[in-house]
């Protein structure tokens, strides 16, 4: 399913879109043997740089390119993804140089296994594109060929610019990146290409970064002379579909046939085919209204009937809330006067075995297989892996990722069980109660504020904790005011309301800084891609503190299950206990979320399965949830890595695949108990 806004964000970063291409005016140079001073095995994860490599004659040195590199014909296209790069899959091609347009964690991972990288991000100017071509040529031993290419491009661009007609007033234009009206201003690379053609950009009026989302009303009011559609392949847009949109049929460009349908790829890449784009723009400008020719008047708007009176919609009355937490199966329920069953050694042994088995599978299975026996011998210090590449993959990539999965999974499951015990609600969860949305807003605010790369800032866990704690408090207050205390329906509705509001604020922040969309989007989908042990070091202290506090209160939570009055009589302070447990659970969940993204449903699935197997006593459920959650997320991450290898599925998608049906069944059961 296509997500228009987020797809646009990637286009806005000038990443490549798929699609068939016309022939380039600057033909790729003939590939020749690799020079003695250049790399022999190049992997390109940028369609733009792939085009440049072949244009300077380095095609024979390229052994693999990403799945979006489709020009020139015959490039060694693979299933490698530039958006979700898999370090192990890239290393499987044994490259001595990897060329990327976006760095971040994948660069650290490649360097950890001894592979050189060259990161050349999207330039802001045409001169910047020329400089990149020269730099790429020097890096691959083709400096002379790159200099010749740049000289030829400069000459062609100068010739095209000389053809631009002189006008007293420049023509205006609108460049469309997708049908939700995202555009590009003159501050971007694409904007400078239009500047060379002497055109005035209507998007410059929007003060929202280089890639603003314009309103249709603004576009109609601006009434550009020319419209350029750079979403013909990704989104199926044409002059006809543009005219069919409400209010756009009367645009001057539409009425006078000056809607130009571009190739998405040519319009989004800053390589040798930039001259093709400039030639198209110059031709469109030359065919525009002559200097001093007034625009044809717009036809009068047809008479419209008065619209029908709007229908007032009222919210459906809320279903009567029931005491969901008091029925059979409610977390922490225990018969008054009976001592809950203790933690059996057999359950602990089974949990530890599950963790060990999941970890071993995670360490041995992947795009580059490594035998289980070899892994165990290496980890135990008996015999090191003979292949240095396999050893680097194991120690620098897989081991920290598996450890991170164990910590995050155990923490999320423990926090979910704690939330359910405090609220006496089997569906309470950091995500359903708005904690994830609050943590997401906190992380987004930090990312936008620091404007730093693709890696999350060090302050992300603290910001996530503050946002999560505020969200849970708001959900609890709204739930208590909107229904019976602890009611499943009231809490879920309150959590949805709080989460929706926080998500709206998060979206607003992202719209103000489009450069951070890709970072936050990748984080929202959930991922456990590590750059080594750094993420483990970030989350481990928070997880240890939160886990220690929650496990220390597991018996007190069993006392709270019998009721506040009875708990008070036994010397337990219910209010203070709930505050401490909620704070610890929010800290743990926020810390996990800050490094893994929104990995949902772990806090619901795991505690439920533990209760079904070992009973409802919190002194049993909480510690077993740690072990089961660790094993569950480790296996989920394994599935995410191998399902569509060499690309990766976001781990949040995997957990949602299992968790959504589980949640529906749980909600149905809880609602049925409340109705009774």
Question: Can you describe this structure?
Answer:
- The structure is a single chain.
- By secondary structure, the chain is mainly alpha-helical.
- The protein is built from 26 helices and eight strands.
- The strands form two sheets. Strands 2-1-3-4 form a four-stranded parallel β-sheet, with helices on both faces. It has a four-stranded parallel β-sheet with strand order 6-5-7-8.
- Helix 24 packs across helix 25.
- The longest helix is centred in the middle third of the chain and has 36 residues.
Number of strands: 8
Strand order of the largest sheet: 2-1-3-4
Radius of gyration over all CA atoms, rounded: 29 Å
- Portion of residues in helices? 40-55%
**C-alpha end-to-end distance:** 40 Å
Count, helices? 26
Structural class: mainly alpha
Strand proportion, as a percent range, falls in: under 5%
Short note summarizing the structure:
With about 675 residues, the chain is mostly helical. The protein is about 55% helix and about 5% strand.
């Amino acid at each position: 399913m296509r997500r228009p806004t987020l797809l646009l964000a990637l286009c806005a970063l000038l990443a490549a879109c798929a699609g068939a291409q016309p022939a380039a005016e600057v033909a790729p140079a003939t590939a020749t043997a690799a020079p003695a001073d250049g790399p022999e095995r190049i992997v390109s994860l940028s369609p733009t740089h792939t085009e440049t490599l072949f244009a300077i004659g380095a095609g024979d040195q390229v052994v693999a390119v990403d799945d979006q590199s489709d020009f020139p014909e015959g490039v060694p296209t693979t299933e490698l993804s530039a958006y979700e790069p898999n370090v192990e899959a890239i290393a499987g091609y044994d490259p001595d140089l990897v060329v990327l347009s976006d760095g971040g964690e994948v660069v650290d991972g490649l360097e950890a296994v001894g592979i050189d990288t060259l990161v050349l991000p999207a330039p802001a100017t045409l001169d910047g594109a020329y400089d990149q071509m020269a730099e790429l040529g020097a890096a691959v031993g083709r400096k002379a060929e790159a200099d010749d290419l740049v000289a030829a491009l400069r000459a062609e661009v100068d010739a095209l610019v000389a053809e631009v007609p002189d006008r007293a007033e420049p023509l205006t234009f609108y460049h469309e990146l997708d049908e939700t009206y995202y555009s590009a201003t003159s501050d971007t690379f694409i904007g400078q290409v239009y500047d060379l053609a002497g055109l005035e950009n209507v998007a410059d009026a929007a003060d929202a970064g280089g890639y603003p989302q314009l309103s249709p009303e603004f576009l109609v009011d601006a009434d550009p002379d020319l419209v350029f559609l750079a979403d013909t392949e990704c989104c199926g847009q044409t002059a006809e579909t543009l005219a069919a949109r409400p209010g756009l049929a009367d645009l001057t460009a539409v009425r006078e046939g000056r809607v130009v349908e571009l190739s998405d790829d040519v319009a989004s890449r800053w390589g040798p085919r930039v001259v093709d784009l400039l030639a198209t723009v110059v031709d469109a400008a030359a065919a525009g209204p002559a200097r001093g020719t007034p625009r044809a008047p717009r036809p009068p708007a047809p008479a419209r009937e008065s619209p029908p009176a709007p229908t007032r919609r009222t919210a459906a009355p809320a279903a009567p809330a029931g005491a969901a937490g008091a029925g059979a199966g409610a977390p922490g329920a225990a018969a008054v006067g009976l001592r809950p069953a203790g933690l059996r050694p057999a359950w602990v042994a089974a949990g530890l075995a599950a963790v060990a088995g999941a970890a071993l599978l995670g360490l041995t299975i992947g795009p580059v297989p490594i035998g289980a026996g070899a892994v165990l011998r290496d980890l135990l210090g008996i015999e090191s892996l003979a292949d240095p590449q396999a050893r680097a993959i194991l120690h620098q990539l897989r081991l920290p990722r598996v450890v991170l999965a164990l910590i995050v999974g155990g923490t999320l499951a423990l926090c979910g069980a704690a939330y359910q015990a405090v609220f006496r609600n089997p569906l309470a969860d950091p995500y359903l109660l708005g904690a994830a949305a609050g943590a997401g807003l906190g992380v987004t605010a930090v990312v936008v504020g620091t404007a730093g790369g693709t890696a999350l800032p060090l302050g992300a866990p603290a910001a996530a904790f503050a946002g999560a704690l505020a969200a849970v408090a708001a959900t609890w207050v709204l739930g208590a005011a909107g229904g019976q205390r602890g009611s499943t329906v009231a809490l879920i509705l309150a959590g949805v309301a709080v989460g929706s509001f926080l998500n709206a604020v998060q979206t607003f922040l992202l719209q103000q800084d489009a450069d951070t969309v890709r970072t936050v989007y990748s984080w929202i989908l959930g991922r456990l891609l590590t750059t080594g042990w750094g993420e483990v070091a970030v989350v481990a202290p928070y997880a240890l503190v939160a886990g220690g506090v929650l496990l220390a209160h597991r018996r007190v939570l069993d006392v709270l299950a019998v009721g506040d009055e009875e708990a008070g009589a036994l010397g337990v302070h219910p209010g203070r206990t709930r505050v401490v447990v909620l704070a610890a659970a929010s800290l743990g969940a926020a810390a996990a979320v800050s490094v893994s993204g929104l990995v949902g449903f772990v806090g619901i699935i795991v505690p439920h399965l533990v209760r079904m197997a070992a009973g409802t006593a919190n002194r049993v459920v909480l510690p077993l949830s740690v072990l089961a959650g660790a094993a569950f997320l480790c296996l989920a991450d394994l599935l995410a890595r191998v399902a569509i290898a060499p690309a990766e599925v976001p781990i949040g998608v995997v957990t949602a695949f299992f968790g959504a049906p589980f949640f529906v069944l749980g909600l149905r059961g809880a609602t049925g108990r409340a109705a009774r």
